[in-house]
TrEMBL record:
Pfam families referenced in this protein's UniProt entry, alphabetically: Methyltransf_31, Phosphodiest
Domain Methyltransferase, first and last residues per copy: 492-604
Keywords: Membrane, Methyltransferase, Signal, Transferase, Transmembrane, Transmembrane helix
GO biological process, one term: methylation
Signal peptide start-end: 1-19
GO MF, any single term: hydrolase activity
Superkingdom of this protein's organism: Eukaryota
Protein name: Methyltransferase domain protein
Membrane-spanning intervals of the chain: 392-413, 744-763
Amino acid sequence: MIPSLWIIFTSLISTLVTALSPHPKLILISFDGFRYDLLNATMCPNIFKWAVRSSWFANGSRSQYVTYTAPNHMSIVTGLHEEDHGIVSNYFWDTDTGKFFDYFNSTKRQGVVNESLDISWYLGEPVWLTNEKSDSTRRSATFYWPNGEAPFPSPPHRPSIHRQWKDFRNLTEWMTDVDAIIDLFTNEEDPVNFVAWYVAEPDHTLHLNGFYNGELRKKIHQLDQLFGYFVAKLHDSGLEDVVNVILTADHGHAEIEGAENVMCVRDYITSEGYDLGDHMIYPHNESIALEIYRNLTDAVKKHGYKVNIFLKENIPKHLFYSNSSRIGRIVIEPEVGWAASLSCKTNKLLETYSSGNVKFNSSTHGMDPDRKEMRAFLVVGGPSIIPGKREWITFFVLIIPSICVVVLFMIYACKHTILTENQGWAWSQKGYRPLLMNTVDIERSGSSNISAPLTRADINKEESILVRNQHIRYGDYGVLGPILEKYLKTTDSILQVGCGNSQLAAEMYDNGFRTIHSIDNNSSVIEEQRLRNKQRPELVFLEDDATSMSSGDESFSVVIDKGTLDALLPPDATVQQLESVRNMFAEVDRVLKIGGRYQIITLAQQHIVKFWIEYFSKTKLDSEASISIESSLQQGPRYRFFIVDDAKAKAIRSYAVFIVPLGREGEWIFSTEKGRRTLLEQAKKDELGPFASRFDPRENGGLIDFLSCGSVDVRVTQASGESAINGKWTVEDVVVDEQEYRRLLAVLGLGGGILASFLLRHFNKAVIDAIELDPDVVKVATQWFALPSRDSRMNVQVKDALDYLEEAPQKGDREKLDMLFVDLAGAVHESGLSCPPAVFLTDPVLRNMKNSLGANGVVALNLVTRDADVAERARRSISAHFPALFHIHSEEDVNEVLLACSSVPPSFDPLKFSKSMRKDLPWLNDLAPLVGRITRVTSFRD
């Protein structure tokens, strides 16, 4: 029966495929305002999963100036700057013709939408027309793309199918759009081979709510659901293997930090003599222009607004935003964290928000496109795209139409690309070749050639050793920031060697690092950096040589090398080049303060790593190092290596690998540095062998011992879920030395309920309070561990154990406790204390424990730590509140039970007491040997 079903399914797909367009196929999708760093596994798992198996430009794409919706969507499909394609903002005037453009109807002017669809506005050629012009059988469609239905000068003027722009729609409508797009590709009579599809979110939500009030997360979730539906429809329709997809946005977003960060422009200009555009002013004559310019610049200085006011001719040339009659005489550009409004009044704005009753939540765009907050996300996937490729370069929005054209026409370009080498991906075999296309790095503005090792030929030989390499990309602060912030403090004095034209120093400055000196031996580079950073006066740029620095000894606490080592050390380095690198290392050592840090940002090619390790590995590790090995197919580390040296050893003669069984990685001895050192003192598979052998420090190598304890995976998951308090949980059967036990699941209190059930079963007159913070844990204990929670003597309370201990001392003497069990599991911290949480060993809490007991009451506290010092401090803390303290160690684990007594005779002997215990109760008889092992804590170490 199964073969028959398979044959039917195959024939259906074959019928579908024959109905497709014979030309290469592409869907271009824009989620308006989707900033590059919103793409992560937590907020949008469907998009993330697709991005991981596609070519993902993790640094996003750089928008065009100005970073608004209409102009950037036109740049995306034409490859032109805004001054060239003519759509210079969302609404604007043309001073040559006197006409007004407002495609989105932002100004609500009568008939303005129809006027904005006049052919005279549109100067470029969008990719949908390029597609149709090349062949009469090619078909394009635009779904709500801004200006997607507009007429362009070159025939056929409009795409075959076009749906007019719509703004804020919902998930149901978006899914209907997906169905319609799929139908267009599979239409038997006239299928399309290109679609441009626009969705107006999350831009709308960000403007109304900003990043932090929770609404953005909901909207991103909807977009993720939409994209998951889209991917499923591609798969179900058979298009997954024949359609390429570009997923991007027009710009990023930046949070406005408060109502006081909004400049109300009309407070500072006269009421007539000018026209207004989006972020622009069109004065009627030159004298009015200069007056408005003076008023606005004076207001910026007086009130401290972080807003740039430009005369048109003074706009920086690299922004390509001055050569058009449609650009206003005065252009207003807020900085990140600020906004400029042409409609508000300051007094009214502050009156609304200053009381705090109304919360100001808003985000906006329109800032400098070189700011990372303005970057849009970009992922390219499909049959002609190399899967699982993550690029750290920053694409220009202008490059996207080039990708479209090359995908649609299979133009052959160069070797090092995001496109597959598979020649047979397309259904139509007509000599098309897969896209092979240069990539662009915003910082170094050159083509990428990263798959081959760097050679000296890649570097300008006429420049000295600290050159600006235009062939490499290392990422900007958006990529490097988390690493830098982990090891650097904002108060550090920092030296950057070989700065080139990198913007790293400026980006670090904008993120709070103030004392940064940058050197390069190219005078023109230094001059360029000084000019670019005039508004960052504390940044210092000096012409200097990294191999012979002019700085004094111990001048800096941090030295950063971003690409300089790679430039100095080619694979075939000469003796002189090797000596130059050694000189640089020596100079770095000289200028660093004691305890300073040397951070090298490198492509880590084999010859670089080998030289670096040989130079810096002359001493043993005084602290452990760790390395994570990740899979491209799943999130998070697949293996984590911890390398621990015995600093006391005179020579390393043994080398072994210890494999931690799955399910036991949370134990102190495996999860903390001190624990792993204990393991070293006390003391996988073939796929790990080659990797582990790279770290073998022995001169003669040899066989490597792989050590472990028990089976590699000792877990059998029985159930799992997620609690609002404790997060994800699992119920697992765990086997150690072939003996089965169940591990506690809770962070506080009840856990699996084993102890509470035991007490209820064997003390039939006892009333038991079981305290648990998390209601989900109570459900787990009841369902999976048979907790008798409905028994009248079992009082299960869902509350914080600390609150319970606060209330217990207030009870009357008849309600005081005879026995208090403290069996609270906490997270394993570097201190080594995993049970109880440290707060339960503080004086106020221990005092409450003491006061909650009756005259002869006892506290039994489960102490879990492998750190002798931590255990000693715990005993000392408890003994300060109780007159007698006893303990017993577990034979099988690291548990130590501490018994703190309210009163006990000095002559009490646990061993003698164990011999006098009742013999008629089997369960009690089994416990007698354990009672005999209890000993009194009589002294503490100094």
